[in-house]
Amino acid sequence: MQNSTKREYNYPKFAVVGHPNKGKSSIVSSLALDDSIQIGDTPGTTQVKRGFPLKVDGKIIYELFDTPGFQRARRILAWLNKQEPVSADKRADVVRAFIFAHQEDERFRDEIELLEPIMDGAGIIYVVDASKPYGPEYEVEMEILRWCGQPSMAILNLIGEDDYREQWKSALGHYFRMVRTFNPLTTTFEDHISLLESMSQLKEEWTEPIKVAISILENLHKEKRIETINAIILNMQKTLSFVYKQSIKGQTATSKEEASSKEKYQQKIVHYEKIQRKAIEEIWNHKGMEKIEDSLVLDEAGLFSKESASIFGLSEKELIVTGASAGAMSGLGIDLLFGGGSLFLGSFIGGAVGGLGAKFGFNNLYEVKILGRKVGKRELTIGPMKNLNFPYILLGRALYHSSMVAKRSHALRESLTLDDKTFYTEQIIDSEMRKRLEKVHVILRKGESVSDELLDEYKKTIQESFKKLM
Amino acid sequence: MQIKYNKITFNSYLDFLQLLQSYIGTHEENRLFALKQKDLLNKPKEILLLWLNTHAFRVPKVINSKNFLTHIGVVTNFLGLFALIVGFFTGMGLLSYNGQEPINIIYYLFFAMMLPFTSMILTLFSIFSRGKLLEFLTLLSPLYWIEKVFTFFSFKHQFDLLKDSISTKLQKWIFLKRLQLLALLFSIGLFVALIVMVVSQDIAFSWSTTLNVSSQCFHDFLVTVALPWRDIFPSTIPSLELVEMSQHYRLGEKLNSSMVAHADKLGEWWRYLAMATFFYAILLRILFYWVASYILQYVLEQEFLALAGVNRLLREFTTPFISTKASDSEKHLPIREENRTHLKAFKAMSQDQYSNVIGWNFMFDEIVLINDVKNIKVSSFDITGGNHTFEEDEKVAKEAKERVLLYVKSWEPPTMDFVDFLEELIHNKAVKEVEVFLLGTSENAYEYSKKELAIWNRKIEGLGSRKVWIIDAK
Lengths: 470, 474
Known about the structure:
The structure holds 2 protein chains of 2 kinds. By secondary structure, chain A is of the alpha/beta class. Chain A is 52% helix and 13% strand. Chain A has 2 domains: 201 residues, 3-Layer(aba) Sandwich (Rossmann fold); 246 residues, no CATH class. In chain A, the strands form 3 sheets. Chain A has a 6-stranded mixed beta sheet, sandwiched between helices. A 3-stranded antiparallel beta sheet of chain A has the order 7-10-9. A two-stranded parallel sheet of chain A has the order 8-11. The radius of gyration of chain A is 30 Å and the shape is elongated. Chain A starts with a helix and ends with a helix. Chain B folds into 2 domains: 251 residues, no CATH class; 129 residues, Rossmann fold. Classes of the chains: A alpha/beta, B alpha/beta. Chains A and B meet through strand 2, helix 3, helix 6 and helix 9 of A and strand 3, helix 18 and helix 19 of B.
């Protein structure tokens, strides 16, 4: 019965094992893209083994096991050595006999938890902290793993600043066919894939399933990037075309009414940005992440701050060029109406006016218009956002935040720090891209809907910038 | 499952819109749903409707679509009846013959043909316009002003909510369709009035204009207007002779004697007027109404598929669900508050103070070096842990007495193997005190970190022994 079950679930399994507190859970967390795994300073944080299967529509492609660290390795090895000598092919049975004999023994609870998946066919991923020197006590653990007879590899995890990798490599080379460096805290998607490729080489039968897993993960990553861009675009559309309306009592709005409306308008835009950020954090599976943001630049209030504008917005020169191109685009509409009979004077005048307007309006972080009145009652309307710089501030902030979230390892438990003052939107959006983006901004500023073709072009441009950041 | 929505209607659109705003499900749930409906995977409308049916119980009733549509229906019916009555009385007014002056057919044709024709052209402009121009054209429509009546009804709030929720494009087509319906009812009223008046009264028709238009020219105009039906019903077109004799000048107090002589012929105009009303005001309007209904349904379906959340749903239906999470929940360690009762300040140490110096998991040479760096003068020491056997460790633990100094690697957390050895020392009655000395790496001058100290402190605390201390060398 057990054999048939095993045959049914013949997918690659990997048990991440090692000494306590060497980053096993961090490695599993980063490979399983799960930031909910408890990672602690206290040895023995992981008390029972946990399987992290990569499932596609319920079908398991491979499974990673997070295990407790070795606690009484010397006693196990002593027990194994005490048994009748057996040939190498029977050594795994001796380990099974140990598990069977000590199933109820509390002293070996951790060892049994870590040995069980290995004896169930899991490949061994032995983790050591290569930022600390090698010690002979590790040999006992490696010897036990050798008794298990399963394909194995070692991972050098650099937890601290020092580097003892050469020392470790010399020692590990005696026990493991493959030794790789992998830092779960700084890992990139490429590192993740590269480690999986190494894991696929542990056993011939695993090569194909791991290849499939790699292609699934690559698709998943691509999908997440697309979803991120969609979330950013949705927010850009909502924010740039947002109009706040408020009924007013008198014939004209009082300064108090106007100030309160402006505040509510800003609050709504900040709220939209918050929704977008949450959506992006969910896409990248960083649900419980806390953020530390520069109080003036990236936090909620910062969206309308001059500091944010100076970092994420365009320079005065770029703004004038953008203003001119936006104006020219409006003027072009007039030219088209006259079938070119206006000798493209509309574009020229529009460009000149737009450029000058942008120059004089550069210091106004946002510009609001009070317009509109309904029959029977007066209404104060604020928006859509007319400021030329604002879309770039919004987009720059969104791209910066998204790239930080997307690149963040799931093994990190500290807050995400968003205070990079060296980031400039202009680094990732050149003038050619800005022209394409501006076409959509012009339409959104008018409160009109954007055609699918333009939206596609807009999406591609933002994707291009996002790629630069990734 | 009760099938509530089997096609895309305004009702299903409204409920879907509200559902998507409050619930969209997880990728796993949506993919599972789609896998059960594999034959519908390439039919987005059908699968979305089925999904809506499955989650119909979740639809929030901010806008109770059924009640709301009933309200709108009642109001539309009321407006329709109103348009029909207005059309009828307009017809009655236009055709009321006082016996003194004949009915000017130009006047009638203006209402029965030119007005509908103009409004249809405006409709065409509205179809192809958007933004401010559309807003302006909407203002020209009487329906826009009549709709203001909605603000007096109890569902005004829902009406406002709806206007904020649905796209301008959809609003435009809803408006255009209702506009066609009301215009059609107005025209039917006009047509009925014509028939009623013709049947119940003896009406004399004429044509009269200030412009210098000859009978021939007017006849040509009439024949052109009758182009759509002149081959089918040629008898409805007035002859040139009738056109000549029907021309009326208001100068003088009495009717032209020729007109009076041919009074029986003047009534024949009604057939032409009826056909003009029927064709231009009714048939064309029915065509407009049908086109508006068709496009509205098309737009409704497009908007249904363009609702926020639909793309995500469709993507989740077709994209395999990938999960990397553990199926079982994690057992968390209880969080303990740190207590520093087991820490002892560092003093200069020598062999005189300690009966035994033991190195846990160290090599012999390492201990020699450590003693030198830390200026600890000892003549002998023991090594335990690492490659040593339990028998060797046990011997060291049993032979220990009085005060024991135990070197440990600060960066290696205390395993149960170490705890076992420490307990052997604790259980040795000859041992009075065990002082654990944390040593960092040689690169860091054997300094340990606060974090490492905290880890060791927690473990020692857990033993609950008064014999064991950790030397706090900082």
